[in-house]
Design brief:
about 650 residues, alpha/beta, Rossmann fold, six-stranded parallel sheet, globular
Length: about 650
Amino acid sequence: MALVAGACADDEEAVSTAPAPAAEPAAPDAAPPPEPAEPAEPMDDAEPAAPAGDDVIRLGYISGGDADPFVLIVTESIREEAAKAGVELAECDSNFSAEEALECARTLAVQDLDSMINWQFFPDSAPEICEAYGNLPTVALDTDEKPCQRVWIGANNHFAGVVSGRGLGNFAQSEFGCNYDAYVSLDIPSIPAVNGPRAGGSKDGFEEVCGPVPDDKYFSIDTLSGGGDQPENTRRQFTDLLTTLPTAEVILVISPSGDSMPGAALAAAEVAGREGQVWVVGHGADGSILDEIRNNPYWVGDVAYFPESYGSIAVPAAIALAKGEPVDEEILIDHVFIDKTNIDDYYPLEGAEPVEDIRLGYISGGDADPFVLIVTESIREEAAKAGVELAECDSNFSAEEALECARTLAVQDLDSMINWQFFPDSAPEICEAYGNLPTVALDTDEKPCQRVWIGANNHFAGVVSGRGLGNFAQSEFGCNYDAYVSLDIPSIPAVNGPRAGGSKDGFEEVCGPVPDDKYFSIDTLSGGGDQPENTRRQFTDLLTTLPTAEVILVISPSGDSMPGAALAAAEVAGREGQVWVVGHGADGSILDEIRNNPYWVGDVAYFPESYGSIAVPAAIALAKGEPVDEEILIDHVFIDKTNIDEYYPE
């Protein structure tokens, strides 16, 4: 759901934060923009914001939904600027959901943050979300996040609408003398603070050129009607609309809801045999759509929001809030109309063409998990190195959202898929939704479209982790313990069975059989997708049933976020020093815990940073019809304080 911006931005005299063009453009007749000005000055740009060590600043970030290309570019710019500034960034993807934004807030609340960057899309939910992360001082992006909001950064919504409407109006005048059969607005009425000024401004701008839109020619499509999959909702409703306009030959479409929806409308027109009767203007001009603006004769243009600039504004503002320094309360993005005549002034084509004319799709299991995010980033990096295009979508731990992802990706002319949705029983429907493209499956069976399986050697990984915990228990306590707790994912038995079983097998190799009255399992997905919160809640309850236990050993086949939640619960209960944990993953987010936390025994490593270098070449080979091994297993080693620097040097 691109560009769901808040109501603050209706002042058309905003200070510009748009990048200056590479060369002075001839402003399009439709929308002479304000002179592009220099971006807002970054704060302390020359050196990191804080020294490494205990004084490092920790920022939190709630993304609105990285499955949307615009949002993803904003997210990547925030990551990049945080790295440049030398601050730590803890992030979570709310995936277009107020409920998941609240889960994100709870997850981030325990991560010792100094300030927040928040882009969840539902202002009515902001008070509860702010409270959940302790009302940390917040930089809000494009949506009001009161009462914790201290800075608002985002779109100048009505003005952006006017710019886009003028662009469409000028096209309609030059091509058709303003004679048209339908004006269609692709809207988000459930977010009126955004849709009102943006859709209204779009119509205002169009009417400046072509006069009032007659009521019988005006149509609005609710792109959120039917669920969170806006492109699919748009495709379905636009198809229906076309059947009600059988003789229409000039249908003008404008999309206040972002850039994914115009493409869905054009795809529906093509399927209906109505290509050449529909022309579109989008809001956003993010990198995923620049080729359409350049080359598609039916994509008139876009009003630009410059998502790549958000990080350079938001991160310095969040750092200033963390330091207690003053920051402007409102910073507006400037907007210009970009079409085929001026796109290279703002986004010049770079050097070489892609070395491979291949488009890969990728369904992430849930980038809110640090391990999954590292895998995702490695896939992006390897796709860029290989010169192939990558269309991606985050299923956010949900089979239903994975199916929506599949439908979204199905219309993007892909050659093969990398799929990491977590529910094998849903795989047949998901495969069918994206046309059974040949698929590289990550860590979960994705049959029948699976051609290659890449991932953990689950039982062996479990054995490695269990031996590590057993050796610790033997050396520290002579294998005398009060409880063995497994943090499980029983709803994914193909993973949990061998991994949890292997963990217990490895432990019992060292310490002998675990007595039934000492064995406990926690379902980390019981209660929703927020596994750390589910773990914290259930582990707190478990501690109350073990009031005299002094040696509680915890192993986490479900990953690395859950052991930390168990330790946090123990600390709150005053039971620190009675709980020791071993995780599965050893991703970058947990290395400091392995090094420095006396209660974090170690981790079995899965080397998530290596997945992309295996998965992307395999997907390219599938796209070319070349042979690939059917199964490629990750190796596993136990990493603890004695050997961590051999694998991950500081």
